[in-house]
Task: inverse folding
């Protein structure tokens, strides 16, 4: 296997694994039933940038960027859902 092929494989693997680090955040919010620690400005800022990147993600021939963009969109959309869901709940 050549070095460029190895670099591409490592890049694809990292692009798939990186967005999966959103899962502990999702689980933490669900377990606490609170997202008070997370700013809505931060949440919508990241989601806005993610949405603005999606046309490039969908059109690119670069598999690393495409894999990252799609998986990040799915996982961060889940984060946004839980932040909104638990943002209004009053703490005890």
Result:
């Amino acid at each position: 296997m050549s070095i460029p092929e190895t670099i591409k494989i490592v890049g694809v693997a990292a692009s798939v694994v990186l967005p999966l680090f959103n899962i502990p955040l999702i689980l933490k919010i669900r377990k606490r039933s609170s997202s008070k620690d997370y700013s809505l400005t931060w949440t919508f800022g990241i989601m806005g940038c993610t949405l603005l990147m999606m046309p490039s993600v969908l059109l690119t021939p670069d598999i690393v960027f495409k894999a990252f963009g799609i998986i990040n969109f799915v996982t961060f959309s889940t984060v946004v859902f839980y932040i909104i869901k638990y943002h209004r709940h009053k703490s005890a």
Summary: The chain has one domain: 3-87. The CA atoms of residues 25 and 79 lie 7 Å apart. The mean pLDDT is 93. The radius of gyration is 16 Å.
